[in-house]
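Course assignment 3, question 2. Fill in each field.
Student: A.L.
Task: Predict the tertiary structure for the chain below.
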Amino acid sequence: MISHVYIGVSDFKKAFEFYDDILSELGLVLKFSEPEKPWAGWMMPGQARPLFLIGTPENGEDCSAGNGQMMALLAPSREAVGRAYIKALDRGAQCAGKPGLRPQYHPDYYGAYFHDLDGNKICLVCHEPQ
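Answer field:
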């Protein structure tokens, strides 16, 4: 259903280091990085799509986070949610919801939320039972 998601960033180098560390916890691998453009993309091993992309806005203007928008990234386990969440906070993200069950969504929804370095709201989620 989704081809790719593009997250706008203001400082590509810092954002790349931030996301590269977190996305590896979720099992994603770097597909490409073009700092001169600047943009980069990650994918699940062996799958061309969907892609998670970061980069500066194409129009050359400052990036800004949308109020009410959120990107949810699938984690392979509840432990991966916790590890990626801690890495995000250690790299400067702001907590928007600690790791835990969210039974209001469904009984096995285990998620954590943060705002990245540019204020984008990111959810890390595992839907599998413990």
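Instructor remarks: The two ends are 27 Å apart (CA to CA). The chain has a mean pLDDT of 96.
Grade: pending
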